[in-house]
Write a structure and sequence with these properties.
Length: 79
């Protein structure tokens, strides 16, 4: 995966295993850490930091076992 300007380019190599004939290609945007303030319950007033929080999933395409590439505008996965 590479970033060129405002586009992400995703490339997948051809399968080398005989049983690898299909699959899906996904991009997952992740925040390294997210601070959450707890407003109710026994932990009210405390803060918790969640790590590696998935923010968005985007299916890029279907993979049929041969090499392939897809281009996705960065705005489609970023917030």
């Amino acid at each position: 995966m590479t970033l060129t300007g405002k586009q992400i380019n995703v490339s997948v190599a051809a399968a080398t295993a005989p049983n690898a004939a299909h699959g899906e290609v996904w991009i997952c945007s992740v925040s390294k850490s997210v601070l959450i303030s707890i407003g109710r319950g026994e932990n009210r007033g405390r803060e918790v930091t969640y790590h590696n929080v998935v923010r968005n999933l985007l299916k890029v395409g279907d993979w049929n076992g041969s090499s392939g590439s897809w281009t996705v505008p960065l705005e489609n996965i970023s917030r």
